[in-house]
Every structure is written in C-alpha cells, then in structure tokens.
Amino acid sequence: MKNKLGALFLLLSIICKSQIINEGDITLSPNVGVPHVSSFVLKTALKVYYKSNIQNKYQIGVKNTPVFNFKGEYFAQNDVSIGLAASYWKMDIDISDIYDELNKSTNVVETQLDNTTISIEVVAVGFRGNYHFLADEKNTKWDPYMGGTLGISRYQTNIQFKSSVLGKEVPEKMFNFKTGIATYFSSTIGVRYYATKNFGINLEAGWDKGALFFGGIVVKFPTKKQLEEEPKKEL
Length: 235
What we know:
This protein has a single domain, classed as Porin. The protein contains three helices and nine strands. The chain has helices at residues 2-17, 37-53, 224-234, and strands spanning 26-36, 57-64, 67-77, 80-103, 108-132, 142-163, 175-194, 199-208, 211-221. The two termini are 17 Å apart. The model is unreliable at 4-17 (pLDDT under 50).
C-alpha cells in the first residue's frame, strides 16, 4: 500500500513539474481563416464604381474560399519557435452587364448580357517566428504566443469575356497569367490549448492574406531525447 501511494505521489510530482512545451519540440498546425476582408472590399468597390458609371443593369458576384494555412514550428528555445508557414486562397469574380439592344435581323429589342469572369488564386510561403509567453510555467495546458511570417506570394489570374450578342468582338480565349512574386507578411497573436500532452486546438487573431481570425488544431511531437527519458521518469 505504501509503495502504491509513493508511486502515485511521484507521478503527481512529475506531472506538476512538467512544462507543456520544451526546447526541441516540433508542432504542426493546420488552420482556417475568416472573414476574408479583401473580397468584401473588392465587392464594395465594384458596386460603387458600377453604380456611379454604368447606366445599364448589372450583377456582381464575388465568391471566395477561406484562407487555409499550415504552420510547422521547431522550438529553438522553450519560449521561441521558428519554422515555415504556407497559405492559400482563391477568389472568383463574376460581373454581368445587362442591357437592351436592337436585333437588326428581326427588328426586335432584345435583352443582352455581357459577362466578365475573373479568378484569382494565391499561394504564399514564408519563414515564421513566435514568442511563447508561458513557456516556463509548470502545470499549464495554455500556450499564448505572438509572432509573424515573412515570405513570398505567387498570384495567378484568369480573365474571360463572354457576350450573348452574336458577332460581338470579345477575346476568344481566356487570359491566364501570373502576376509575379509579391511580399507575404502576416502578424498574429494567438493561444493554444493542449487537451492532451501532444494534441490541442488553437485560435489566432491578426492578418494573413485578408483573413482576421484563424482556428485549427495543433499536434506536438516531442524530441527523441524526451522520448528516451519518459521510461526513466515513470520509474
């Protein structure tokens, strides 16, 4: 009985003295970001422009994916992690001009439609660094942090024109071009909660490709040295 109680107290002391993150840990974290501010701003700007300059009827549709990102970090120190981050999002813009035009062959006024479709796809990668505020705290499952990412973005744009007017000159093929490389910058402040030693959830607020809030999971992989020390701790 005494031996069992002694083992229990030893186990509790190990748990209470353990840290949620340690130097050498590796974390992987997929996230989804909303809302997409860029699509909202673009849709508003298009509506203002068309309302001010276009006399015909029109329809504007903007659809977009949320921002998906994936982060991998290595804890160079207990309170400092470095690694890589990647982000992806896509936005589709559909603009339709609706107007009446005389059909010369039938001498009847018909409603016509000119359509412009724009698709923008973005992939970004960069180096990421975070500072973790409670890295040295014992017996905590919370990991608040702040940091940022700096890297490059590649934009790919497709533009297509269509018209219901027979014989109207519009580009026959879709324009497909890459807009080159741009700077990728994101800043975040977040918190992770580890439900178990190596698995948790995280929430972030900041700016990453137009999204303001991110949520996802985090998986932590301990170092080889820590795995080797686990049996010794249990003993």
